[in-house]
Amino acid sequence: MGRLEGKIALVTGGGAGIGARIARRFREEGADLIINDLREEVAHKVAAELGGMGIAADVADSTAVRAMFEHVASQFGRLDILVNNAGFGFAPGDDKSVRRVNEVPLKQQAELAAGGPIATHLDLTVEMSDEDWTRMIAVHLNGTFFCSREALKIMNPQLCGCIINMGSIMGTTGGIGVTTAQPRPILGFTRSLAREVVSRGIRVNALAPVLSIPS
Amino acid sequence: MGTVKGKAVILTGGAGEIAREVAAQFLAGGAQVLLVDVNEAALQQAVALLGGSSVAYCVADVTSEDDTVAYVRKALETFGRLDVLVANAGVEGLVAPVSEYDTDAFRRLLDINVVGVFLGIKHVFPALAAQGGGSIVITSSVAGVSGSPGLSAYNASKHAVIGLMRSTAKEGGPLNIRVNTVNPSPIEGRMIESLERGSMPDEPAAMRQALIQSIPMGRYGVPADVANLILFLASEESKFLNGGVYMVDGGMTA
After folding, report:
1. Considering the domain boundaries, does residue A3 fall inside one?
2. Which chain A residues contact residue B251 at CB under 8 A?
3. Domain match, B213 and B90 both
4. Count of structural domains within chain A
5. pLDDT grade, residue A92 (50/70/90)?
6. In terms of domains, do B121 and B149 share one?
7. B154 part of the active site
8. For B30-115, where are the alpha helices, taking DSSP H only?
9. What domain range includes position B212?
10. Is A180 exposed, middle or buried (0-12, 13-18, 19+ CB in 10 A)?
């Protein structure tokens, strides 16, 4: 008998990476799964592998999120677990920033070791476009809020449920500016929501993982 | 809970109420447990209650380096291995305004709650390292992350073990030794009843009421709440968890 036998769990961003691993582990413990992802094909692929339901929706789009949770309510009639996992490190396709984060610190160390002043700089913030910034906030912050709000519409009358938000160690220890801007408010939102919904027996927590290796 | 089957565990403060539940869960999971405490009669009672051949005890004062060496040696001799230290021994001390807090009592409390944990880690580290790693779980408290009036020594000690944990977690990482704290809210039992009486001698029930009101889930914890977390941190399932402060407080410090 698994620890999540009979529980209905929705994992956002469940089509790949950590989200897909969370889903797989939940399934091993007996949960019934709803796999959300921005990309329809990966949501359905993971759902098919694990025997769950796949739903494509952009968590940053409140209309799409509402429709997703209404569908969940009509199909399952309840929701026990929401994992707000959808997110990304840098905007998809922003290889330049990824390369910078990987290479600049090494160059800086080499420059320091050579005794010279540091001549290479990260410059992520000054280079970031309005669109990339807005998208990042929309997915991580708005997405966590929209999904939590709609999930609570199902969980509230149940008087039980569990919401898990993905923060990051960047949210607790600090990190590169643009990557720290979302996990910190997520931790704050988690704490305040936890106090708000405890009266209904709903628990809210956040995880703060270090960087993970995609597999 | 993750698996703790076959693990050898040292549990200090082993005759206390939380420890009783922790030991019972370890034993139920197939681990072997050495209970360490200063109170031999209570240890004998605990061993008799827990039963079975997988539990042993060692009378030791955690503030004594000789006693610490002795209980680590006893665990290694009894079980032939060592995987887990639960550094759980601790006292609440006095409840008194800081200007009236007895200095010797302050020193004595730090000796038990901080130096005792330090000694345990110090002498368990080589054994764990030699074996390829292990897990150390320290019982801190909500008093390790926030203050309570009248508890200057207790607060200081529970903050201090978080620092000790963070430093040793970084030392332990390369050796595959993980160090974490569990931070309970008030847990039903002797200690919180003593603190209720110490804070409001005439109306301990009112103190209890006030404390419970500060816990969003509306109740004190029970020993099993803490034991569940300690077992997880000792198990293989938590093998990447190192240097963490884990609240088990019903949202008290959220």
Report:
1. no
2. 194-195, 198, 203
3. no
4. 1
5. low
6. yes
7. yes
8. 40-50, 65-79, 103-110
9. 188-220
10. middle
Is A147 within 8 Å of A140 (Cβ atoms)? Answer: no
Q: Are residues B175 and B193 in the same domain?
A: no
Which helix (H) or strand (E) is B247 found in, with range? strand B245-248
Any domain includes A64: yes
- Looking at residue A138, which CATH number applies to its domain? 3.40.50.720
A191–B216 C-beta distance less than 8 A: no
Q: Where in the sequence is the domain holding A107, given as residue range(s)?
A: 8-207
Longest dimension (CA), chain B: 53
Q: Indicate if ipTM > 0.90.
A: no
Same domain, B79 and B151: yes
B52 and B174 both lie in a single domain: yes
Structural domain tally of chain B?
2
Q: Which residues of B touch A195 (CB under 8 A)?
A: 216, 251, 254
Q: B233 lies in a domain?
A: yes
B254 reaches A (C-beta below 8 A):
yes
Same domain, B119 and B169: yes
Number of helices (H), then strands (E), in chain B: 9, 7
Non-local (6+) Cβ contacts of B16 within 8 A are: B37, B88, B89, B189, B190
For A138-153, how does the pLDDT look when each residue is reduced to its tens digit (9 = 90+)?
999 999 999 999 999 9
Question: How far is the C-alpha of A36 from the C-alpha of A191, rounded, in Å?
Answer: 24
Of the listed ranges B11-25, B116-130, B167-181, B184-198, the one predicted with least confidence: B184-198
Domain shared by B27 and B118, yes or no: yes
From chain B, pick out residues whose CB is under 8 angstroms from the CB of A192: 254
A5-28 pLDDT, tens digit each: 999 999 999 999 999 999 999 999
Which of B217, B228, B246, B248 is the best residue to mutate to test the A interface, defined by the most A CB atoms within 10 Å of its own CB? B217
Answer yes or no: is B146 within a domain.
yes
Residue for token pair 């989200």: A19
B216 and A CB contact within 8 Å: yes
Residue of B57, B71, B101, B154 marked catalytic: B154
- Residue-wise pLDDT tens digits, B71-126: 999 999 999 999 999 999 999 999 999 999 999 999 999 999 999 999 999 999 99
